[in-house]
Amino acid sequence: MRPFVRRHLTRVVALLGCAAVFAFTVAPQPSSAEESALAQRFSFTAHPVSPDNAPGGRRVRTVAPAYEQIRSWISSVGAATALFAVDGGKVSRDVCLVDPRTDTVTVEPAPTTGQRFQPFTLTPSGLEMPSFAAPMGCLPVDLDEDGWQDVVVYYWGRSPVVFQRVPGVPPSAPAFRARELTSPWQVWNTNAATVGDFDGDGHTDLVFGNYFPDGARVLDPTARQPELQMNDSLSHATNAGTLRLFRSAGAGRFAEVPGAFPAEARTGWTLALGAQDLGGRGLPDLYVANDFGPDHLLVNESTPGRFAFRTANGTRHAATPKSKVVGNDSFKGMGVAFADLGARGVPDILVSNITEPYALQESNFAFLAAADRATVAARLRTGEAPYDDRSEELGLSRSGWSWDVKAADFDNTGADEVMHATGFVAGQVNRWAQLQETAMSNDLVLSHPTLWPRFTEGTDLSGHDHNTFFVRGKDGRFVNVADRVGVGTDAVSRAFAVGDVDGDGRLDFVVANQWAPSTLYRNSAPAGAFLGLRLVRPARDTACRAGAAGPTTPAIGAEAEVPAPGGGTRLQEVYPANGHNGVNAPDLHFGLGSQPSASVPVRLAWRDGCGRHHTGSTSLPPGWHQLRLGSDGTIEEER
After folding, report:
1. For residue range 122-161, what is the model confidence (pLDDT) as tens digits?
2. In angstroms, rounded to a whole number, what is the distance separating the alpha carbons of residues 411 and 61?
3. 582-583 and 588-591: which strand pairing?
4. 259: burial class by Cβ within 10 Å (0-12, 13-18, 19+)?
5. What is the distance in angstroms between the CA of the first residue and the CA of the last residue of the chain?
6. pTM of the model as a whole
7. DSSP-assigned states of every residue in 69-84
8. Residues 554, 142: contact at Cβ < 8 Å?
9. If we measure between CA atoms, which residue out of 129, 266, 139, 138 comes closest to residue 205?
10. For 413-481, where are the alpha helices, taking DSSP H only?
11. Helices and strands per DSSP (H, E), number in the chain
12. 560-575 confidence digits (pLDDT tens)
């Protein structure tokens, strides 16, 4: 092709791309009547899960001298929450809450579910707890596979602590014993964690995403270290802490697997993690959402005892901005969730970013699978990520400064709603101009925190954004009705935990707020028909014995597929810990729409405690069911 023709074709393609982007930008907005009609399907009542004025509470942290002039920025994370069954029951009706106002990790019954035990604090008694350590998240998981959920607490300033459930203690007085995940403890700055059987050996492994460089005592007022850095780029930063994988070593013990992840994915500024079996191969892949640089989709190629991942990248089309391609984005990945948005039996990927009008208008992502699940699996194995961003045309591209993102069916219609936790630093003085100046500075400047503008008390950076609650309209676009249904608080929020805390078939959720009280939103709309699945498998002592009775543990990684009300099928997987510091109940929940059948066919797949992969099917009436997935491939309902 002649250079003259090639140049002009390039210009035409560029103009077509601009036209496409412009068309998306001016997409019609929903009418007030449409918003009202969508909002009428939902109703929530708010219940506090932390005091209005926490004793000793504050709104800014003590930081290392290097970060003194950006201490409000440094103080912007730490709120987290999780739902689980600390009392050993079937219903995940207990709340773990990390409150940055007091740097406490508390466990208590969810409001309205009764005082089944006295609230308590997870304190690492007997372990060294440096003054510069602050909790960032709590992760319930049955580490020793004894049928009781333990809790992993992760921090800035130290490696995680395992709080192992003490056996033989009655549910009315739960007790936990603290021990180190890794000895001796190390200085990490962890902002994300997830679980999954990543090598397929039948046991749950742990992954931790770290933010500031390893060894950096970010919250130590005496620290003067070379590790006290900021990101070395706003779009390609790679000077953060290490992405770490810990394999199960049995009896609740774990051992780190050095080099488990590709070198290019190990040191991003990670804020969220998501595990999901994208291709139906029986192993979870891993999505790593990074601040200040590209996210990574890591395809799992592990075998029992051997961990291996490879990076997969998306394909850029003529009208696709480079920054909207899987693995090549330069946005600020803050949260990740998976949802079968097209009722095709294929997981899609939702990613939250900074999307602040007139400030930093990036884009959230709705990466929709571009093929059926078998084809997705085949293309992932070649290093290609067959996903295209459709966030703008779906109405999900903009939500403010967003953190955790969750997708769930709150009105049982068979289609998910999407929520974003929003807000950064709340104050009175808008400092976006100074932040934009920083964004335009040389990368050589960025890593030095003393060269940043002042972000101290009084600074406001998207501090009054409202949380979102997106509902899908008749035209297929999502409409944000958060304010209309009473969940659009302007508190600075960080994380959601979704689950049916009262077992009535309506999903509720907890929102963890930064420097403010946190809240349970109990679903009070008409229930509608649903199918709820609590998938469990035999616990440690009977994990490999066919037909053995005994305790059970959540079947992490199990999946279920059911018919969708409007045609097609909907797929969900048991990976409760995906996102930014918000852990869902380990349940699957399918809305059945307005005309449910008396019996719902369910396809199931799971891995047993010996690592064997099983598939099976059953039919169930609407309602909640606890299914025991056996080591011999049987499916039994537990009453």
Report:
1. 999 999 999 999 999 999 999 999 999 999 999 999 999 9
2. 40
3. unpaired
4. exposed
5. 71
6. 0.95
7. GGHHHHTS---EEEEE
8. yes
9. 139
10. 432-439, 443-446
11. 8, 42
12. 999 999 899 999 999 9
